[in-house]
Amino acid sequence: MIITIKISLFIVLALITYQDIRERKVNWVLFPITGLLLFVLYENKTIIQYSYIFLVMNIILTTSILTILFLYTRIIRGMKFLNVSFGLGDVLFFYAFALGFPTVTFLILFVSSIVFSLMVSLIQKKKNKANGIPLAGLMSLFLAFVLSIEFLPKLPSLYNF
C-alpha cells in the first residue's frame, strides 16, 4: 500500500512541477491530493500521538511564515500579496508540505526546498530572463527527489524525530 501511495505522490508532484513550470498555474485539486498523500505516508510511518502534535506545529509555522511574507509584501514593498508577489498555488503547496513530516524534518526540507528553488531560478534567470519563480513546481521537484532517495537502503527515515 505504501508503494502505491508513493507512486501516486510522485505522479501528483510531477504534475505540479510540469504545470507550474510550463504554465505558471496549477490545478488546485493537486494540492489537497498532495497533502492527503503526504499525511497518509506520515501516518503509516510514525506514532499517531506525536503526528498530530507535529502537524499542528507545522501548520502554525507555515501560517507564521506566510503572515510575515504577507506583512513584508504589503507594508514594506507596498504590493499585493496573492497573485502578484506570491501565488495561491504556492500557499496551498506550503500547507500540503506541512502535512507530511515531523516538525524538524519539515523545517529542514522546507528551507532546503526554498534554497533549491532560489538556486534553480537564479540559474534560469540568467539563461531565459524568466519572470517570477515557479515555487510550488520547484519545491515539488525537490520533494520528489528527496522521497525517491528514501528508497535507498541504509538511510535514516525522514520520519524519525
Please give a structural write-up.
The two termini are 23 Å apart. The chain is globular. It is mainly α. The model has no long low-confidence stretch (mean pLDDT 90). The chain is built from 6 helices and no strands. The chain has one domain.
Keywords:
161 residues; transmembrane; transmembrane helix; mainly alpha; membrane; 6 helices; Type IV leader peptidase family protein
Number of strands: 0
Tell me the β content.
under 5%
Let me know the largest β-sheet. none
Q: What is the count of helical runs?
A: 6
Radius of gyration: 16 Å
Segments where pLDDT lies below 50 for 5+ residues? none
Q: Percent of residues in helical segments?
A: over 70%
Report the average pLDDT across residues: 90
Q: How many discrete structural domains? A: 1
The helix/strand class is mainly alpha
N-to-C order of helices and strands: HHHHHH
Shape assignment: globular
Distance between the termini: 23 Å
Organism: Maribacter caenipelagi
Protein name: Type IV leader peptidase family protein
Keywords: Membrane, Transmembrane, Transmembrane helix
Transmembrane segments: 26-42, 48-72, 81-98, 104-123, 135-152
How is this fold's topology laid out?
Blueprint: H1 2-23, H2 30-45, H3 48-76, H4 88-98, H5 103-128, H6 135-149
Please provide a brief summary of the model.
This protein is mostly helical and 161 residues long. It has six helices and no strands.
